[in-house]
TrEMBL record:
Keyword Iron-sulfur: no
Keyword Disulfide bond among UniProt keywords: no
UniProt keyword terms in alphabetical order: NADP
Membership in a protein family: Belongs to the short-chain dehydrogenases/reductases (SDR) family.
Enzyme Commission code: 1.1.1.100
Transmembrane segments: none
Name of this protein: 3-oxoacyl-[acyl-carrier-protein] reductase
Catalyzed reaction equations: a (3R)-hydroxyacyl-[ACP] + NADP(+) = a 3-oxoacyl-[ACP] + NADPH + H(+)
A molecular function (GO) term: 3-oxoacyl-[acyl-carrier-protein] reductase (NADPH) activity
Length: 292
């Protein structure tokens, strides 16, 4: 399909009978649960062939299985984004799944390893930057041959950021720097691969979304690093209450509530869709109005 035909679809009758992402192949990292899993489900509902990437093989398989059982198309390719060999395998299997094509990358995988500046270890620092900056870069670089093409088909890269990256956050120097960094990576991709190849690249910065990263730390969620160290996830209840301040809960959010994983994933879908075909190099805040 030619570029002008696609534009006519978008600006004309907005008719997508096979889905907004029909025929496109999408890699979504960290899609074994939470926002990533919801994005995988929504993408598949809109006709995409989804590659479910997650460090947890069982969760990745469950997401892919549910998509296939519902009539969609998905495969699971589990592995560690900090492993260069895995990144190459992920791209190879995605291209095979897509008959030689990859159209979308959503760099969503990640977690927090919080600590105030004077107590943050080198390991905390290096791991979070490697996961949120270096891994997305290496995945995009490995997939370059499938994006630097001129076949008239859309190509999209979405890098997931956070309000911590836009505004900073106490106790998250490593995460804030990493999430600020993906903004620069996104803009560089847009400037390098947009002119000749039409690749769109955008950042989505999430605010308070209900996931294991924003749940109470007392609930006991954790992730295990490749070295076997357990990293507690979530926000301590006392800290959450202190941030909220007196009065109404979520008073700092104009919509007065946190967002859901489905709402967050819907924003990713929207940015990848042809409905936003003239949007690139942007950082889109999905926050319920917080920090505006």
């Amino acid at each position: 399909m030619s570029y002008t035909t696609r534009i006519a679809q978008v600006t004309g009758h907005l008719n997508f009978p096979k889905g907004l992402l029909a025929g496109q192949v999408a890699i979504i990292t960290g899609s074994g649960q939470g926002i990533g899993a919801e994005a995988a489900r929504l993408f598949a509902n809109e006709g995409a062939k989804v590659v479910v990437s997650d460090i947890d093989a069982e969760k990745a398989k469950n997401v892919a299985d549910k998509i296939n059982e519902s009539g969609g198309s998905a495969i699971s390719v589990p592995g560690d984004m900090l492993d260069d060999n895995y990144i190459n395998e992920l791209v190879k299997k995605a291209a095979e799944f897509g008959s030689g094509k990859i159209h979308i990358i959503v760099n969503n995988a990640g977690y927090t390893w919080d600590g105030v500046i004077h107590k943050t270890t080198d390991k905390q620092w290096d791991t979070i930057l490697a996961l949120h900056n270096t891994a997305p870069f290496k995945l995009v670089r490995a997939a370059a041959p499938y994006f630097r093409v001129k076949d008239g088909e859309p190509r999209n890269i979405i890098n997931i950021s956070s309000t911590s990256g836009l505004h900073g956050n106490a106790g998250q120097a490593n995460y804030a720097l990493a999430k600020a960094g993906v903004v620069g990576l996104t803009k560089t991709i847009a400037k390098e691969w947009g002119p000749q190849y039409g690749v769109r690249a955008n950042t989505i910065a999430f605010g308070f979304i209900l996931t294991r990263l924003t749940a109470a730390k007392e609930e006991g969620a954790f992730i295990t690093t490749p070295e076997g160290e357990k990293v507690a996830l979530g926000i301590p209840q006392a800290q959450k209450k202190a941030r909220a301040g007196p009065g109404e809960e979520h008073a700092d959010i104009p919509l007065r509530r946190p967002g859901t994983a489905t709402e967050a994933a819907s924003a990713i879908l929207a940015v990848c869709s042809p409905l936003m075909s003239y949007v690139t190099g942007q950082t889109i805040s999905v926050t319920g109005g917080r920090n505006m």
